[in-house]
Structures are given as C-alpha cells and as structure tokens.
Amino acid sequence: MRRFYKDVTLGAQPGGWQVLLDGRGVKTVGGAVQLVPTRALGEALAAEWARQGEKIDPASLPLRDLADYAIDIVTPGAAAIAQGLVAYAETDTLCYRADPDEPLYARQMDVWEPLLSAFEAAHGIALVRVSGVLHRPQPAPALAVLHQRLLTLDPFALAGVEAMTKLAASLVTALAALDAAHEDEPRALWQAVCLEEEWQADLWGRDWEAEERRARREADFLRACAFAKMAQG
Predict the structure, then answer these.
(1) Sequence-separated contacts (24+) of 182-188 with Cβ below 8 Å
(2) Sign of torsion, CA 11 15 180 78?
(3) Per the CB 3.0–4.6 Å rule, which of 42, 139, 166, 194 could disulfide with 17?
(4) Around 83, how many Cα atoms within 13 Å sit in the side-chain half-sphere?
C-alpha cells in the first residue's frame, strides 16, 4: 500500500490518545477508534507511522497491531484471556526442571530458582517444582492469585502480557518482566527462560536458523513488554 498521508500527529481525546494521519484519527482493523491510554504509547504508535516510506510496510507496525488486538479482542474478552493465561502457570517453564542427576538441573537451579523464588515472594504464593515431563497441578490458591492479578490489568497491558507469556511459555516470566524496575531486567528474564535452548546449543552446536528465530522471538518479547509498560504509564 502506498503511503496516503503526509503528517503524523498525536491528539488528546476523551479517554486517551489517538494518532492522527493528516488530521484523521487512526482506527483499528475492526473499525473502532484506536485510543490508547497513555501519551507514551501514543507517541510510540505515531513514530511507527512516521517512519513509513513511500510504501507502508504492515510488518513494521507491530505496536499498531498490538493496540488493535487490545481494543478489538482483549477489551471484550479479557476474562477469557486471563483464564487462558492461568493455564500457562500450570506448566510454566520455570517450574519444570531436568532430573536432579542431570547437569542441566544444577544450571536451572542457579538461574531459575532465584527468579521463581522472588516471584513467589512478591505475590505471596508457592508454586510446585517438577523434575521431568510428567504434569503436576499447581496449588489452586496460587493460581487464583495469578488470575486476580491478570484481571487487574487494563486491556493493553493484558495484551502485552499475553504475547510475552506465549513467547516464553511462562506466565511467571511475563508478569516478572511487566513488574521489572530496571530496563535491563526483561532481557535478562528472556535469556533465563531460554536456558535450555542455550544449553542444547552449547552441547550439540548452534543452528543459525534457530538462532535467528530465537532473536526474532526475543525482539517480539521485548516489544510486547515495552508496549505493556507504556500502557501502564
């Protein structure tokens, strides 16, 4: 699609901020007014539109896509999405370890256990650690706390958390990234959740196509985290 606008501005509207293309407000793919809750997020969306050249590249508008998803899908379906994310806690990556006699187990304990323990302390919960692949249910009270936390998020933050959770296969990692106080923490959390992939690569050699896919997933994770944080202000 050829670029059909010249000027990109950001307007304050009742209920939020909206990107304006030649003075006309952007709408979602579903036809709704694309209002975002904070100026910071609005400025990030405007920057995506401003960077477009003579032709619009839809792949270079990922924040636009997340905003559309938050408005069109998450807003009317937040309860179901929150419930679906709780299911990830049942098989959270950080809770599933190798067998204790395997070298990988010690590495997982060194890297994952401090992160998981800190998360438990912050939320006042206890999660079950599992060695091997057989499923063990997580305590219902812990899942209830996580469910309630998800329900407190606005649709934009919830959209970002959903994206992070699916990329990391870990609700713990997603919520920890959302709450991270320092800007380098989300990247460190992503690297931690990829521990087993890194271990296998060191053991058997690196597949550069797999490395490129992981780099793209990391970029998507960090972008979703930034989106959620900007939405919260």
Answers:
(1) 186/221, 186/222, 186/225, 187/218, 187/222
(2) negative
(3) 42
(4) 4
| Torsion sign (Cα): 50, 53, 55, 59 | negative
pTM over 0.90: yes
Residue-wise pLDDT for 113-172, tens only, equals 999 999 999 999 999 999 987 889 999 999 999 999 999 999 999 999 999 999 999 999
Is residue 3 situated within a structural domain?
A: no
Please give the backbone phi and psi of residue 96, each rounded to the nearest 5 degrees, phi first: -105, 115
In a domain, 84, yes or no: yes
Please tell me the predicted confidence (pLDDT) of residue 20. 98
CB 22 within 8 A of CB 42: no
Q: What is the CATH number of the domain that holds 197?
A: 1.10.3580.10
Residues 48, 160 within the same domain: no
- Report helix, strand or coil for 74: helix
Does residue 96 share a domain with residue 208? yes
